[in-house]
What does this fold into?
Amino acid sequence: MELREYFAQAKAEGWAIGHFNFATADVLRAIVEGAMRAGAPCVLVGTSPGEAEFLGMAEAVALVQAARRSAEFPVFLNADHFASFDACKEAIDAGYDSVLFDGSRLAYEVNVIETQRVWQYAQTKRGSFMVEAEVGYLKGRSEVQTEVVIGRDDFTKPEQAADFIRRTGVERFAPVFGNIHGIVTKQEEVLDIEHLARVAAAIPDAYLVLHGASGLPDEQVVSAIRTGITNVHFNTELRVAYQRELKEELAEHPGQTTPYRYLQSADDAVRDVVEQKCRLFMAARIHP
Ligand SMILES: [Zn+2]
It folds into this structure.
């Protein structure tokens, strides 16, 4: 099945596909294992521009293809928050399955034009390729921060979302409705589910993507899925779990120099977070 078909299935049945970031082969394997343990139908993995640069795009594509074959499990690769046409083109040419073109920092009209370019180029290369876009700037970074100030002015406007989808033709859309990238420690991240419902009603044919899900209570993730989210992005929670276990492991065994030994508990922690999240996305299902 193509990625697009999994999205159609998730939307029809009311669950969400997980999206998890990686920059190393061991984390990719941990993500795939977690998704499989949870019984998820598929998993979307992503590389941010920084992660793609560290790992290499050709390497990311080859690792995902190998994971698909050896695990016999549908794993799809997304270029996450690529901010220029050229960067997206590079990912499309390298063999990625999907791209999030993030033109949210551009003026709206420029975002429309650049998103159209990405979408058209992707379709000429491969019909199965999916494009996601974003309108409204999603604040924060994929790390632990104390506070990120957002207001309703930052939220995606439903009319603008409708105009954007009509003019660009993209299938996946990342709205801003109180979500923040990363984890905030001195503030409560609160989703405005009613606002999400208004965006969902304005673009009934698009697949809605929740970014910045790290740090959100489970029940908010579930209500976002029940209001039309079909894809949830987690990055920071994986990074935090990985680093915490790695630090502990190295502190306990300072003489250990073998990577596949000292990385094991960090990988297990990532696998467990992914499994728990994927179970949550499936449990949100309201239609049998
Ligand atoms: Zn994101």
